[in-house]
Amino acid sequence: xxxxxxxxxxxxxxxxxxxxxxxxxxxxxxxxxxxxxxxxxxxxxxxxxxxxxxxxxxxxxxxxxxxxxxxxxxxxxxxxxxxxxxxxxxxxxxxxxxxxxxxxxxxxxxxxxxxxxxxxxxxxxxxxxxxxxxxxxxxxxxxxxxxxxxxxxxxxxxxxxxxxxxxxxxxxxxxxxxxxxxx
Length: 183
Description:
It contains three helices and nine strands.
């Protein structure tokens, strides 16, 4: 008897503002985050889970569309999971992102990390894994049926960091040499 090879996992890629859920064991959800956060929730008994990717916590006064706010996307993820049979009381979380990528600017990553921890604590959803904060981005793959996650850190080499901040000098005033000047 010959065994058929296992089917290749299908990978859904999400970007900022997206939410995906599934109970298919042959499906993975992937994203890349920096200061954004990807929250992965799943119900281990039901074998269903999902991932979102948010840009901002969603505090009052922010101007970005709701679909980019963590408060909106967390509720959307929970509701979609319950729609496919997950029990909110059994949900577990792994969260990734919240990096501080640009020194000297507002630390959106820290705000996102603080928000997601507080949201999960308020909702009674245990945070069982993940990676928040630090100076690097992350590529995340999540298998929603099992709750398994794979993480790859995306770091800038220290030698390259200053080159990213270099600004070319302004062009000299007037037309380039040999070009006519118009008044």
